[in-house]
Amino acid sequence: MLTVSGLLAACSASADSGKTQLTWYINPDSGGQAKVAANCSTDDYTITTQVLPQDANEQRIQLARRLAAHDSGIDIMSIDPPFTAEFANAGFLAPLPQDLQDKLTQQSFQGATDAATWDGKLVVAPFWSNTQVLWYRKSFVEKAGIDMSQPVTWDQIIDAASKNGGKVAVQANKYEGYVVWINALISGAGGELASDTEKGLDMKLEIDSKAGEDAAAVIEKLAHSSAAPADLSVAQEGQAGSTFGGPQGAFMVNWTYIYNSYEASNPGFNKDIGYTRYPQTVAGQESRPPYGGIGLGVSTYSDHVDEAMQAIECITSPENQEVNAEITGNMPASVAGYEANGNALQKTYPADLLKLFQESLDAAAPRTVTPYWSDISGGLQSTWHPPSSVSSSTPADSQKFIDDVLHGRSLL
């Protein structure tokens, strides 16, 4: 958070230079957003960046507190999809001009548009879209004799790893990433966490269902198998990546950026990395990979709303989506972004992997779009963690608890 002296200095610098300074609050990355901010600064305004906390929930808390206080020090913000509806419903987001909505809707993946929409309107600008695929070690699957050219199930990869001394790396710490896995498992079994979200607190929770039981069975099986990493209950993306890169690495579900995270410390490792569609929860039923990403919102309380809207139009252009993807590994929110700047991404990623990313985005299952997502997510984390505690009764227990939280009968 900027200090008072920092804010005064920023205002003074803006006044002295005669240029508006737009402050963009970004999620931590390896420099992609800062590069795009520089690209989109103009003779009329300069875009500077301030980095939010690493944890998505902490990002939400910091932004929400400042926006609730009508803080004009935020102009543009990078918003995780689950919190878009909450911010829009609270009136924190300035309406996107209709022509910008139309342009973004036309260029963006459907999943990106869905995640950026609340109450029938696009409320944030899709910037990048992330998804997970199943990564595997080619040497391991050759030893295990599993055919990765065909769709595989969670049961198959857990069994293959268990029988051949391998580990299945996932994200199962008590945090948002674990909810991403739960949501993907339930969606892959044909269910969803909640429906009728337009009814607010009276939405229909659907965790206690056959799909919920199928999801719980996968988590229970992995947690009690020899394929479970020792750090399963605290594993986030980085820990999963370390397990996969270790001597027992076999399978891993993780985001697009993981592909280029090994070469610096282990040159040549990528030659042993294979990739395919996210595992099926139920055999024969197409998987629904996770959807992640970032949408850009303009604060209602910004003193420079018009300039900020111009800025996000530039930031979310296919050319700058590609620039961000090349630096960070967070893939574009549009097909055009994959093809921008002379197909620059093709120099870093195999063509079939880029195709898999896009196919997975088309099939991805966003988390429930509701202003009450934080309650749903917190309730799932409280009742499905640790993974070793998950059983056939977990879906029903979690649904009751979340319903109690939503209606004020229990506290998270």
TrEMBL record:
It holds the Pfam family SBP_bac_1. It comes from the Bacteria. Coiled coil: none annotated. SUPFAM superfamilies: Periplasmic binding protein-like II. The keyword ATP-binding does not apply. Gene3D superfamilies: Periplasmic binding protein-like II (3.40.190.10). Keywords: Signal, Transport. Belongs to the bacterial solute-binding protein 1 family. This is Extracellular solute-binding protein. It comes from Nocardioides mangrovi.
